[in-house]
Amino acid sequence: MSAPVKAPPLPLRALIPNAITMLALCSGATGVRFAISGEFDKAAAAIVIAAVLDGIDGRVARLLRGTSRFGAELDSLSDVTAFGVAPALILYLWALDDLGRIGWVVALALAVCCALRLARFNTSLDQEDLPKKRLGFTTGVPAPAGAALALMPLFWSLAHDGALDPDPHSRAIVTAVVTAVTAFLMVSALPVWGFKAVHIPRSARLFVLAAVGIFAAALGQAPWLTLFTLALLYAVALPFAVLRYGRLRKAELAAREGDG
User: Fold this and answer.
1) What is the Cα–Cα distance from 236 to 27, expressed in whole angstroms?
2) Most buried of 64, 77, 113, 174, CB within 10 angstroms?
3) Which residues have C-beta within 8 Å of that of residue 183, sequence separation ≥ 6?
4) What is the model's pLDDT at position 152?
5) Angle at 133 (CA atoms; ends 129, 139), nearest 5 degrees
6) How far apart are CA 193 and CA 215, in angstroms?
7) Which residue has the higher pLDDT, 235 or 17?
8) How many CB atoms lie within 10 A of CB 244?
9) Is 2 a residue whose pLDDT tops 60?
10) At how many degrees (to 10) do helices 69-80 and 101-123 cross?
11) Would you say the pTM of this structure is higher than 0.85?
């Protein structure tokens, strides 16, 4: 009887991206802990840190040639926690609790729609010929961007020293509307900007780099207002993504008809 073949040792480079993903998950979950203790500024910061970590884990994996199906699944589970469940609980504890059962339903909608969005994303990982994916767009708002959109009322309140706190009912209504719209955008079929869909003219390169520097300075001086502004600009850019995709798709179909 032959001895069982041992699996080869796992290279360290394959674990580093997964470790970053776990840090993102832990950061998002820690945001809930801060929200329970009423430290909503730290709770929001934890979600932002999770978003930064989520943005680099995939790139680190590709750089180290450590991509794997396990890493992709772990990333989605982390995203559900950090950008679905955690923001939903933070917003419920901060504002939506004032609406009672309706507030809880809205919070659940954010978490559920985030999970559904990620499930749809996972099913398309191996489908490179999807129109939106081929043209560099994503279907629906990605989980980290959705968390940022949902947290806009909290960002605004933190930027203005609790401007929404004196009127809890109005705060709850505004938060419920923003959260519900965000949940819809996450599961919608709308084309949304992806990195491949954004092209910077060479002549604008210096202006873009200057804008990045200004953003970094603003983030250091007024972090909550800067994050609110960034999320607002992202929301404003969504209709332009739909228009841009429509033009690209029409041009693609016209080119195919011409070749036929």
Assistant:
1) 28
2) 113
3) 106, 109, 110, 112, 113, 114, 146, 150
4) 97
5) 130
6) 20
7) 235
8) 18
9) no
10) 170
11) yes
Map tokens 């991206």 to a residue.
17
Average pLDDT over residues 202-218: 86
**Can you tell me which residue has the tokens 């469940």?**
85
The pair of three-digit structure tokens given for residue 256, joined into one six-digit string: 């195919």
Q: How large is the angle between the packed helices 69-80 and 12-36, nearest 10 degrees?
A: 10
Please give the mean pLDDT across all residues of the chain. Answer: 88
Res 252: pLDDT: 80
Concatenated DSSP letters for the chain?
Answer: -PPPPPPPPPPHHHHHHHHHHHHHHHHHHHHHHHHHTT-HHHHHHHHHHHHHHHHHHHHHHHHTT---HHHHHHHHHHHHIIIIIHHHHHHHHHTGGGGTHHHHHHHHHHHHHHHHHHHHHHHTTT-TT-HHHHTTEEES--HHHHHHHHTHHHHHHHHTTSTTTT-HHHHHHHHHHHHHHHHHHHHS--EEE-GGG----GGGHHHHHHHHHHHHHHHHHSHHHHHHHHHHHHHHHHHHHHHHHHHHHHHHHHHHHHH-
**Does residue 35 contact residue 90 with C-beta atoms inside 8 Å?**
yes
* CA distances (Å), origin 9, targets 6, 12, 71, 143: 9, 9, 17, 33
Give the pair of three-digit tokens for residue 115.
Answer: 């999970």
User: So what's the pLDDT on residue 179?
Assistant: 97
pLDDT band at 126 (very low <50, low <70, confident <90, very high): low
The structure tokens listed for 232 are 């607002």
In this structure, which amino acid lies at residue 57?
A: D
Q: What is the pLDDT of residue 180?
A: 97
Which of the four pLDDT bands, split at 50, 70 and 90, describes residue 146?
very high
Alpha-carbon separation of residue 199 from 135, 193, 202, 209 (angstroms): 12, 11, 9, 14
